Structures are given as structure tokens and as C-alpha cells.
């Protein structure tokens, strides 16, 4: 996973209307991009620019930003699956080298995810034609949670042994997903399932939700 060219560009992110002040310390080459992202989250970012460090990648910046906002909001940076105590009866599989992230359904969250992943130089695509889609074990699959076919998409992705399967949803829908999948767990097997998708940063808008999902992928080592 490489770094994008971090020029003074908006990358399609639009500033949010509210403002929350956060302090981070990052390499100078990432400062402009970090401020653009922060504005879309609704943050006013106070950046202490450090000396250039080739070992620090933009992924590290995203993790630091998520960690800082979770601290400010008095929550621990952990998976929503854990913080909401969603019992998922699947065990972790050895990680495969992922090649692409499939975003199932076009929503503000999946559009923001596509932009975030672009900054990390990771291949992603928003899928809206589900009938011709074939999953592979090297795929990351993020289901938008807005389609009547969401449960089938999750089940199919698990059956294909995709590297990471997640769905954007609230706690109530997450429990429905688990209940639905429990009926066919023998067919699906034991696979990593992340519902609700993302880390618990108390996200309040699509860009924050996208950040929380990307950081979960980074924490797990999937990207």
C-alpha cells in the first residue's frame, strides 16, 4: 500500500458545517491533506508538523486522527462489533493479500470510502449491478446496508471466503444479520464478519463513518 501524491487538493471532500478542535502531530507533507479530511469530518485540525519521516505513511495519519477523536469523545478506539457486544460466531481466518475493495451500493458512506481508499492508493469500486458480480477470497466487501439484498450479499461474500466482510448498519440491523446467518452457518463456514462496520469513534457523518471503516481495515492488517 503506497501513498498518494499529497498536494493541496480537496480530493472531493466537502467541509462539514460544525467544528470540533483536534490536535495531531504529523509529517509536514501530509498536513494539507489531513486538514481537508478533517474539515469534511467537521474538525478544525491543529497540526504540529514533525520532521519528515519516510517510515510514516498516510495510513498512520488516519489512525492517529481516529484515535484522537475517540479520545476526545471519551470512547476507546475499538471495533463497533466489540463495543456494541455483537456476538459473531465466526473465527478469524489467516489474512490473504487483498487486491480490491468492493463497495456494495452507492451511498454517501461508500462514496467517501472510495475517496479515502484512493488516498491510500488501494483499488476500490462501487458496485450497483449485483447480478453479474463474483466475489473472490482476495476481496474486501463492504455492504452499504441500504439494499433489500444486503443479507444475501453478506452471505455470498462469506461463502466466497472473502478476506473481510462488513456492513454499515446500526446495532439492531447487525443483530438481524447474525440471526439470518446463523440459519445457514454450516454452509457459510467460519469467516470474519464485521457488523456494524467500523471503529467506535462515535461517528456523526458519512466521512467520519468512512474513516472508522478504513481504520478498522488498517488495524486488522487487511489493507
What characteristics describe this protein?
single chain; 223 residues; alpha/beta; Rossmann fold; 5-stranded parallel sheet; two-stranded parallel ribbon; 8 helices; 7 strands; globular; disordered N terminus
Overall description:
- Residues 2-8 have low confidence and may be disordered.
- Helix 4 links the parallel strand 3 (100-104) and strand 4.
- The strands form two sheets. Strands 4-3-5-6-7 form a five-stranded parallel β-sheet, sandwiched between helices. A two-stranded parallel sheet has the order 1-2.
- 37% of the residues lie in helices and 16% in strands.
- Helix 2 (58-72) packs across helix 8 and helix 4 crosses helix 8.
- The chain is globular.
- The longest helix has 15 residues, at 58-72.
- With 223 residues, the protein is α/β, with parallel strands linked by helices.
- The protein has a domain at 80-220: NAD(P)-binding Rossmann-like Domain (Rossmann fold, 3-Layer(aba) Sandwich), CATH 3.40.50.720.
